[in-house]
Every structure is written in C-alpha cells, then in structure tokens.
Amino acid sequence: MDVIVGKHAGFCFGVRRAVEQAYQCQASSTPCVTLGPLIHNPQEVERLNAAGIRAVSSPEEAKGVTLMIRSHGVAPEIYEETEKLGILVIDATCPHVAAIHRLVETSTRDHTALIIVGGWDHPEVRGIAGWAHGEVFIFSEPEEVKRALLPDTALVVAQTTLRREHFEEVLEEIRKKVPNLTVRNTICAATSQRQEEAEMLSAEADVMIVVGGRNSSNTNKLYETCLRHCPRSYLVETAEDVPIREIHKEDRVALTAGASTPQWLLDEVAGRIRRLA
Ligand code: SF4
After folding, report:
1. Of 98, 132, 190, 210, which residue is least crowded by CB atoms under 10 Å?
2. Residue 219: CB within 6 Å of ligand 1?
3. What is the per-residue pLDDT across 123-145, written as a single tens digit (0 to 9) for each?
4. Mutate which of 94, 185, 221 to test ligand 1's pocket (most atoms within 8 Å of Cβ)?
C-alpha cells in the first residue's frame, strides 16, 4: 500500500505561531487564556487545556492573566476593551490577517462599503468586518448576492481560507451589481497551496484521508475538494476514526490536513494507515 502525506498538510504559519506563543506564554510566570478556542481542532484544544491554557469568551474573564488573541484576529473594540480593563495582551493575529485589517481600515475611511466573501459567523470575518468605517456586506454564496441591494462603490476582500474558485463565483455576481469595485484577493497562499495539493493528491489516490476538526472551516473545505476528485474521501479527527474496513492493501492512500491540525495528530493517523499495509 502506498501512503503519501501532503507536503502542505497541517498547521499553517499563522496557527503554528499562535500555538507556540500560547505554550511559551504559559511557560512564563503569567497564566495565559485565549479569546475563543485558539484553533479549530478539539484534540489540540484538549492538549492546550491540559497545559492550563483555556479559552475565555470575553476580555472581562481575563482579569489577572494574559489574554491571547488568536490568529483569526479581532475587531478594534476588543483592543479598546482590554486597554480599558488593563489586561495584558499577546496578539497572535496572523500577519496576513492583520494586513487585511489595515487595508480595510485605511480603504474605508471615506466610508466606502466593504464586501467580505466568507462566512458571516466565522471569527476571522467578524474581526475583519470590525475594522470597516462604512457599511459591511458578507456573502458566502452567489445566491445571497443576487438578493442583496448593493452600493455603486465597494471594496471586496475574501476570508483567507476560501477556495479560489468559490471566491470567483461569488465575485462574478458582485461585479454585476457594483460598477466601482476594488477587488483584493486576500485568500492566504498557505490555503491555496494546501487546496491545490489536495486536489492533485485526491485525483491520483484511491483513498483520500483528510485529517482535521469537524468544526474547522478549512478542513471541511479541503474535504469537499477531495470528495470532488476522489469518491473514497474520508474526514477523520483522530487515528481511531480511520475507516480501516474501507482501505485495502492495493490502495494508494493520500493524506492531507487542515491548517489547524497539529503534526502529532497527522503522524498518528498516517501511522495507523501504514500499519494496515
Ligand atoms: S491560513 Fe493563512 S491567514 Fe490564516 S492563519 Fe494560516 S497563514 Fe494566517
């Protein structure tokens, strides 16, 4: 049995940096809490909890400890609130997301409308929306654009973990409605590389395994991509989830993992599959 693990599988730069910063902070003298789960991976969150790094839902709950802002970033109100409360902050906002915040803040000072292509309930999207000075529209599907009343001028950005093709589909509808459109494709290169690699691997594999949290947006998008090319694609959270009855000795098995999947989990899953050979 051939088992191939994608080179771009697992933690992206921003998530790795945030997780390392959290463990470093906890190892120092002040305990560290994170504003929301640091990453969308239940197993790594469990490890963080075991190390004493727990998630809180508001800055108020971080009095007396260090508050870590995760790679998704936050709206400016959160910084204002932490300052008012005198809370020590470690800002692990991914530099790529922070650049989107700066772009949105400066480009909408004249109250130009902002359109974000992404999920309205995703923390990264909510954070980006918070930096806009004007009206904000959030669309995840082309159909939503068709129903919307849009201004003549707008700036468009994308949730960093979006599939490029999906962004283009939604964008096509936006272009029909907004004559003065400034488009910034803010999809992260790490996401595109992982998606492209997953596409390539799933086109050649008999069985495609996507490792990651079921609550992770980019893991789910990765799984959807793989399923389009390989009908025997499976999303697994841990080595126990590996569908051993579905994998045969003659299969070519390929693995990929979402940006929030730690290396140790990917290794465990790959190890279990290799033992089937
Ligand atoms: S996916 Fe890209 S933008 Fe998002 S945290 Fe990772 S490196 Fe940063």
Report:
1. 98
2. no
3. 999 999 999 999 999 999 999 99
4. 94
Residue 173 has pLDDT above 80, yes or no: yes
> Would you say the CATH fold of 13-94 matches that of 2-9+190-276?
no
Q: Is the CB of 125 under 6 A from ligand 1?
A: no
Q: How far is the CA of 149 from the centre of ligand 1 (A)?
A: 31
Question: Residue 146 has which token pair?
Answer: 């068709």
46, 80, 124, 224: the active-site residue:
124
How far is Cα 130 from Cα 24, in angstroms, rounded to an integer? 29
Domain boundaries, the chain: 2-9+190-276, 13-94, 96-187
Predicted TM-score (pTM) of this structure: 0.86
220 three-class SS = helix
| Per-residue confidence (pLDDT) for residue 260, from 0 to 100 | 86
- Closest-CA residue to 41 (of 249, 233, 269, 250): 269
Shortest-distance atom of ligand 1 to CA 188: 2
pLDDT tens-digit series, residues 144-165: 999 999 999 999 999 998 888 9
* Cα 105 to middle of ligand 1, angstroms: 19
**Average pLDDT of span 44-57:** 92
* Residue of 98, 209, 90 whose CA lies nearest to 160: 98
Does the CB atom of residue 37 touch ligand 1 within 6 A?
Answer: no
Structure-model confidence comparison of residues 195 and 174, the more confident one: 174
124 is catalytic: yes
Give the pairing of strands 180-183 and 153-158.
parallel
